[in-house]
Design a protein that fits this description.
There is one protein chain. By secondary structure, the protein is an alpha/beta fold. The chain contains ten helices and seven strands. The chain has a single domain, classed as NAD(P)-binding Rossmann-like Domain (Rossmann fold, 3-Layer(aba) Sandwich). The relative contact order is 0.13. The structure holds NADP nicotinamide-adenine-dinucleotide phosphate. The site of NADP nicotinamide-adenine-dinucleotide phosphate (NAP) has 31 residues, from helix 2 and helix 7. The site of NADP nicotinamide-adenine-dinucleotide phosphate has 31 residues, from helix 2 and helix 7.
């Protein structure tokens, strides 16, 4: 067993494993010898992926279909993994509601708060004591560069990711003395289904990374928390914005959205 599997294995729970960055996490974790528990709503996709991971990497891969917008989902996931030796939680599922605040669907906003904030909080709450007791392992939260400051026309989404950043930073400091690594991953634009679901043509996005590269970089930097931005372009951009007077930065961002 390699160093990575010894530190974070034997079992990783990956939410949002049916597509994009989460699918890449699941595939690369299986490639590193970890058994995986795959969580998302589209169980057909999860089943195909689980079979592929078993065949290719000889690991155990199980499927937990769940709608993380449902308040009972995280309790059911924690119950289902209670007997497994979970060494790594990859809390990655999430989605964005964009546009002029107040003009979108209020129900979608509530679902986004559940999936992006409630689910990571409850999954980490359930697994942190177990990780602390075993004295090794990790939690990886997929946040976003949008969590680094309020982003106009993405107000609710950037607020959910600011929440994740605060949660991840706090847990990094709490769990480090117990030998548990916490990384809050802040991707910039990534070529997944997410931009299209938000009505954005991905080819118009700057420095688009592949989900493979985002997941790979995050796993390579799992010990380098509290937060990690995989894209050099977005590291520089947000470094510049965060160094500006906040009002100027927000006005510039709002203008760049063409509004
Ligand atoms: N793509 C980007 O540019 C970008 C940038 C920064 C951060 N991120 C973050 O990266 C993470 C992964 O997104 P992605 O880009 O890989 O997008 P994606 O391809 O759309 O994947 C999103 C994943 O989340 C799952 N999910 C969404 N709603 C869910 C729900 N109600 N219950 C359970 N699972 C749910 C989806 O599974 P089902 O639909 O099967 O349920 C899917 O597996 C998200 O947290 C996102 O905010 C993405």
């Amino acid at each position: 067993m390699g160093d990575f599997a010894e530190r974070y294995g034997p079992v990783a729970v990956v939410t949002g494993a049916s597509s994009g960055i989460g699918r890449s996490f699941a595939t690369q974790l299986a490639g590193r010898g970890l058994d995986v528990v795959l969580v998302a709503r589209r169980h057909d996709r999860l089943r195909v992926l689980a079979e592929e991971l078993r065949d290719t990497h000889g690991v155990s891969a199980s499927v937990l279909p769940a709608d993380l917008a449902d308040p009972s989902a995280t309790g059911e996931i924690l119950d289902a993994v209670a007997s497994l030796d979970v060494g790594l939680l990859v809390s990655n599922a999430g989605f964005g509601v964009k546009g002029t605040f107040g003009e979108g669907d209020a129900e979608a906003l509530s679902s986004m708060l559940m999936v992006n904030c409630q689910a990571p909080t409850q999954l980490a709450h359930g697994l942190a004591p177990r990780l602390r007791r075993r004295g090794r392992g990790g939690i990886l939260f997929t946040s976003s560069v949008e969590g680094l400051m309020g982003c106009p026309y993405s107000a609710g989404y950037s607020a959910t990711k600011a929440y994740v950043n605060a949660l991840g930073e706090a847990l990094w400091a709490e769990l480090a003395p117990a030998g548990v690594d916490v990384l809050t991953l802040c991707p910039g634009a990534t070529d997944t289904e997410a931009p299209r679901l938000q009505g954005i043509d991905p080819t118009t996005l700057q420095d688009l990374m592949s989900p493979y590269d985002v997941a790979h970089a995050a796993l390579e930097h799992l010990r380098d928390g509290p937060t990690y931005i995989p894209s050099a372009h977005y590291r520089d951009l947000f470094g510049t914005l965060l160094a500006m007077p906040r009002g100027d930065a927000l006005t510039a961002m709002a203008r760049s959205m063409g509004r």
